Amino acid sequence: MRRYFGRKLIIYSLTFFLAVTIDWMIPRFMPGDPVANLLARTSVSADATAVAEMYAYYERVFGLDVPVWQQYLTFWGALLRGDLGISAYLFPTPVADVLMRAVPYDLFLLVPSILLSWYAGNWFGAFAARSKRLDNTISPLAYILTATPYMWLGILLAWFLGIVLDVFPIAGAYSFEMRPHWSLAFVGTVIHHWFLPFASLFLVGFGGWAIGMRNMIIYELEADYSHYLEALGAPRSLIRRYAFRNGLLPQITGLALQLGVMVAGALVTEVVFSYPGIGYLLLAAIQNQDYFLIQGCFLFIIIGVLLANFTIDIVYLLVDPRTRRGMVGESA
Amino acid sequence: MKRYELLYFALRNRKLQIGLAIIGLFLALAAVGPLMATNDPFAYINPLGPQAPSEKFWFGTTFFGQDVFAQFVRGLRATFLVGLLGGGLGTLIGLLVGFTAGYRGGVVDELLNMLTNIVLVIPTLAVLLIIAAYLQVRSVFTECLFIGLTAWPWVARAVRAQTFSLRTREFVDLARLTGMRPAKIIFTEIAPNMLSYLLLVFILQFGGAILIAATLDFIGLGPTNAVSLGLMMQYAVLWGALQFGMWWWFVPPGLAITAIVGALYSMNVGLDEVFNPKLREM
Fold it and tell me: Tens digits of per-residue pLDDT, A178-203?
């Protein structure tokens, strides 16, 4: 168990270090000059000395006036204090504030869609395995769903349910007539706007999990222990329960491995529905060449994915006793 | 005899037949289509602007009066290219890493395994976003390169596990005793034993690369000098195809991607049944 955690911790810290370093490199090595961009947009007077002074001022604000190695150290220092710099596109709002406004929407959209699609997919997949009629209906449907690009399913849902039938709104996280506050009406509009992005993320994920579970169950039912139980005359439901429990383990690992893909899916879905999460913000940041905001979004995604992975590792430790005894240290 | 037996089961397998038929259809369309649709995909040829499919414009025209069919068939070419090259590169890197890690074991394995795990955990799309934004001019080939360089960890893991179990077999020991070089052992003794598996892996990478490319294109980080199915969807959404009900603009590209990737998955399942007798006759 200690070995298992030790290994995981090394991987996580190395990943974090590497990711933060890549993250730090973004504004420094990207083409274009963020400060010059900002100045061009605020259109200061043509006076050259004034521009030069403004330039020096902003360089100081963004901390770009010291040697590169010092910038790197300062970056880590600021990061550990939770300071992510200032957004150039929404100047002078700190990046951390911009992100904090987007995060609740992300959690609200991602957590339910990932967990529910995983749960429902496993459940349906387990039923489909080795039952001819269900298998012939659920499996093809699941394959089609998992082959669908996230944004296309989103576009179709938005077009059909949003425009043709006009039952769901297709843009934003709440009605444009309202301001965020705590009231029943506001919660209602938030859920109303949440449904379509949630449905498209849920459906694509559902297909993949259902297929995975179906295949695992078939594999487990072929295993020696299943045949042995069968020979002993154990009821079919008991054998299937064992198969389900064993099939669940790779699905948990799969959940950890799929997180990156799901984040990407959430990103395009947010773009389709103009849903104000991190994905939507990231796109706006890229289009406006706001490197500090890109940096912040990337960092947030990294931390989110690492935390989720870590949680899954702990869950794995709880559900698979072999991990606790250090027998399969690296399967997850 | 063995080969004919496999072929017999392959030709009889419904899932494989369906998958191959769909892929064949789209391949033919990608090959012949651009010859039929001679219109420049970007030219504003229809002065009336957006129009539903008609005899003159089979898939209708875009908001700007561009020929959707001309864009579609060229986009199909890009899609197959990305699948082949991006998926191929991902498979190749994964193979090299997986074989090396699995066969050498020890410290090499530990290091490569760590690298694989790191690349798996980093949300690759975020990295792709940054690299893509860095390059102002991008071709389909650069896109293939990005995808190949980030999609390999899956393959590496699977191949490593397989190599691990084959490495200790007697025929491998025997080959080692005869003084064969490791590279030769891997390619002549180990790899042929997992050839069917590698084919399946490549098919999955092919489909995966197509989906990643569609995502990248859709958020505007795709090729800057070509048409692709993802780009078509991006333009459709950007220019209000949803609000104005121009379904002919966004339905064909997404449908084609879904059909191609779905057909690949179906082929994958079919081939699995062909190679693995336990799964047949289901």
Answer: 777 777 777 888 888 888 999 999 99
